[in-house]
Amino acid sequence: MKRLSILLLLPLGLLFSCSKPQLKEKTKKENPLYDKAFEYRELGRIDSAFSYFNQAKDLFLSQRDSLGAAKCLVNMGIISTDKGDNFGGQEISLNALKYLDKTDKTQYPFIHSNYNNLGIATFKLADYLNALKFYDLAISFSENLLDKNLYLNNKAKLYQDVKNYQASLKIYNQILSQNSKNQREYARALSNLAKTKWLINPNYSAETEFLKALKIREQEKDLWG
């Protein structure tokens, strides 16, 4: 069984809040380099993982497997952004779009993850308008509520950073109003909402909301949160 992984960026403080879902499926053709890339990724040998994803991408292209090549590029783009190479992550993720088919719903998980990475890399490069466009595209290709809310959270954080607090509050309230069963998602949105209210009014007492979010995170063993 070949493995497929969409590796979303881990949260950096309150900057971005994403999960790292693992998806599995059989690849179109044999590519041991692709498996090796994930072995190194799981071992924390990120540079080696990147190298093998790159080699696997070339092999997929020689096999005329465009989706296989796209999956490699998506992971390479995320690795680059995660390491702080935002220009590299942006360039690789843009390249991945050439090999993805937006009319094929089975490819949506790769498409929305790729757009989210473009949003994060572009945000870090202070190109806020285009970052918003990428987040909106990630949301539009998300059929799972959890994924959609993760990207909405990133969008709200962007608004918060550019001091458009009302737009940020609107999104956080939207997330909280959905009564999601995912408690980590609820705690993240609640703490971000409280921080936004405090940024609007430094006299606002955010302690109750922060303590509630903390209690949920402790119960969920969300140590990073």
UniProtKB/TrEMBL annotation:
Pfam families linked to this entry: TPR_8
Protein name: Tetratricopeptide repeat protein
Upper lineage: Bacteria, Pseudomonadati, Bacteroidota, Sphingobacteriia, Sphingobacteriales
